[in-house]
Amino acid sequence: MPTATGAVPVRRAAAPSRPAPGRIPRRLSRALLALACVGVLAALTCATLTSDDRLHAHPVLQPVAMAVTPVPAPPAHAAHAAGTPRHGSPVAPTAAVSTDASGHTALCSLAQAGLALAVSAFVLLLLGALWCKRRTLVPIREMTRAARRIAEGGEQPSARLPEVRRPQRELQSTADTLNFLLRRIEEGAVRRKQMELRLHELVGAASHELRTPLTTITGYTQLARIGALDDPRRLDHAMQQVQREIQRMNRLVEDLLLIARLSQGGMLEQRPVDLAEVCADAVARTRCSGARHALRCRAELPTHLVEGDRHRLEQVIGHLVANVLDHTPENTSAEIRLRLDDGRQVIDVVDEGPGIPEAARERVFEPFFRARHTPTPPDGDPSRGRGLGLSVAAAVVKAHGGTISLRPSERGAWFHVTLPALDERARLETAPVVRGALS
């Protein structure tokens, strides 16, 4: 996994105590280099001797013994022709020179041996270079082929480059880096598939939710066209149903837009808000609506201040209360509890209804999710409790820097909401400035 600084984690092998297989030992490489140098010097010596031998074509002279033998003097005209003085000695010296070629033969043999040694060293050095090249390039070729297969789509996103068979730290470090990049690509592909699947489910659920009111409106419109709504009472009832479905579609579209804006970091109005007052108003509206539920609010302090958008926070409490009304039988007791805990305002909405199945607790905040075997709302409308209420509540709470979760409970549902508390001194020093608002 990537570290906090963004560095790529690379597995580094410990330095081996002996040369790793696949590498030329340092002593062997030095010996080959020395042997190559000797061979080169021998070749140069051989070339020098050969060129010197060509320049001096006469044999090499060795010190020899000379013997002088008196001979009869030649005739006068012969002596004059030989260049001897006319009045010289009557004796002419003669030298016998013997030539020894053994030294020349030894030098040639040495030169041939040096040349053979040079050729042998060159051949050994060439074979060593080829061996080293093969040992180095084979893993690189394997990595290149695997990377090409992955790039061409022949492998799954979870494919990895093969491990280097011969332990070479540089190549293994490169393979680890590429595998890390492949792992990041795989994680991105998995997230993209999950987002596509979630978007597909969201579009399908939204289409289904919009189709129902559109079907109702279309039916009443056709009845009006054929004259089946001539009775004023029937016409008034039909118009009420049409208006109700239109409002339902408007709420659905507004909730979808709100979730989209908040997910993109949309700004909210920032003002001091008293959660105790918001919760009390929600209880009062519930009682005025004629709901047959024993809903009450209990606050730990007179005021529970947070900084945020009052309208959106009222939506959060309203959706949590509506969840109680839609999914619990009549005369079910429910309570809204407010308390301050370690600098955070805590809202607990607890009811004594049938609760939410454990398998569905992780998905209750997903759009258009409805657990199986969910009881039908008291008014008999199956479309209620199947919208975006809890999804909107989760998005608004998250935009305020808070958290929302479903706590385990022995009986009923327990929604737990936390929001950053606003200090009284900060409330007095902070002016009600609007940073941004969502329409």
What does this structure look like?
This protein has 439 residues and is α+β, with helices and mostly antiparallel strands. The chain has a domain at 271-429: Heat Shock Protein 90, CATH 3.30.565. The protein has helices at 26-55, 76-82, 102-151, 169-225, 232-263, 275-288, 310-327, 389-399, 424-429, and strands spanning 271-274, 294-299, 305-308, 333-341, 344-351, 403-407, 414-420. A hairpin with a 6-residue loop joins β6 (403-407) and β7.
List keywords for this structure.
alpha+beta; disordered C terminus; elongated; 9 helices
Largest sheet: 5 strands, mixed
Q: What structural class is derived from the secondary structure elements?
A: alpha+beta
Shape: elongated
Low-confidence stretches: 1-23, 54-69, 76-99, 430-439
CATH class of the domain at 271-429: Alpha Beta
CATH fold call of the domain at 271-429: Heat Shock Protein 90
Helix content: 40-55%
Strand order of the largest sheet: 2-4-5-7-6
Query: CA-to-CA gap between the ends?
Result: 41 Å
> Whole-number radius of gyration?
51 Å
Q: Please write the string of helix (H) and strand (E) elements.
A: HHHHHEHEEHEEHEEH
